[in-house]
Amino acid sequence: MSTPLVTNNTELTVSELSAALKRTLEDRFGTVRLRGEISNYRGPHSSGHAYFCLKDQTARIDAVIWKTTFMRLKVKPEEGLEVIATGKITTFAGKSSYQIVIEAIEPAGLGALMALFEARRRQLASEGLFDEDRKRPLPFLPRTIGVITSPTGAVIRDILHRISERFPRPVLLWPVRVQGETAAAEVTAAITGFNALPVSAPLRGPLSSETSLLRPDLLIVARGGGSLEDLWAFNEENVVRAAAASEIPLIAAIGHETDWTLIDYAADLRAPTPTGAAEKAVPVRADLLTSVNDLQRRNAGAIFRVLDRRRSDLRALVRGLPQADALFAAPRQRLDRASARLTTTCLRMLDQRSLTLGRLAHRLSRQAPHASLARMAQRLDARGRDLRRASALLQERRRQKLDHLGGRLTQGLTLGLRLERDRIQNRRQQLGTLEIRLQSAISRRLEQRHTRLAALDQLIRSLGYKSVLARGFALVRDERGIPLRRATDVTDGAILTLEFADGNRQAIANAVSSSTIPPTEIAAGQPKPRKPTRTAKKPKQEELF
Fold first, then answer.
1. What are phi and psi of 58, to 5 degrees?
2. pTM of this prediction?
3. Is the dihedral of CA 400, 401, 402, 404 positive or negative?
């Protein structure tokens, strides 16, 4: 038989050990940044949380992103994506394992960004957002141009300068950030906001009530050059979807000619630079004037040539017209023949109609209309008598039914009035009882308030400074009524107010001490001042204020 092992180690439950390990791990590591590849990611759970793993060549760690954090992430987890995750290390007691609760995710390096860029481009292209058949042509000469860019950069100045050089048009600027965490949301809101403006109603300018701008006919989303990370806001899905859904034609001018973003694929036209976008937005006014003048000259020449040719054709036609008698001879002959045929036809039709009318009169006389009318009158009288008998019977039945319903209604009204009278009597009794209780409660409450008021008044009399003044003390105030606590606060010649228990008196402060007063100024009969004796130092009186 084996003997139990004797030890002085403290016994722990599994929950206590798990809690101790959790505190130790969280205190030791806290917030960390991990670089690894996302594995076993199947999308958000039905609860909204996301569970997956981070791994490298030799190790792996469980990871979790809570629902509220997942909704705020700019970069969503994807299977096989290498990321840098920021979060806190903790343990999960249900599996006796440790995990990282991720609070932020960012792609690990340029390669990861390019992979994410390609994956997002393929996804949006599969939805048809980049199809050429859905892109609309730009207006030839827009009435108003909307620009979405930073108001402080060189981009807006280049666009305004190039538009004013080519063909001045009103420009409506929507200022946004073009880099940073909020840039994508602001650009999306700007595109949506321009499309939400009314089409026909003018927009009043901020400088003058007479200045008005219409809804833009063309949008330009512009930004200067930069790295892939700087231009990433224009690769966000919400920006691309807003550009694709825009009802207003949109030009994307992001970065330099070699820079490509996803909004360039969704826009109706891509410009290599912001200046190029301004050139594509409006034509050159001088070229248009030259073209219009050339067209005007060509149109005037064509009109003169057409008029000359029509004049020559008219002369030739006039010479080829026949004489008036020759024109009307044949129609006049056809009219005479038609008149003769018409007279013969009318006589023949009159004879046929007379024969038909005679046959109809003979048939009508055999049908005897008066006899038919007499028989129909007899049938009508019989139907009238039947109708009167049925009406009288129906009225009698209705009268009996109404009498029965009237009796039931009278009985019901009598019973209802009796019940309502009993209910009112019960409510009056309850109201009397409640009135007695209310008066009793009010009396008790008033008595309690009087008692408390008397106690508070007694407390004020005991603790107020008036009781201190009644014991022989005085309260000193300066000219502004502020109480004085130290002699150093009193200046020479100051007017002081002394408050006693029975009234106030005023005094003027004097800096002369009692030791400098001549002996002759001491009033006769008053005792000489005693020399100060050394006595025990009295405790300092507590301040009243």
1. -125, -10
2. 0.42
3. positive
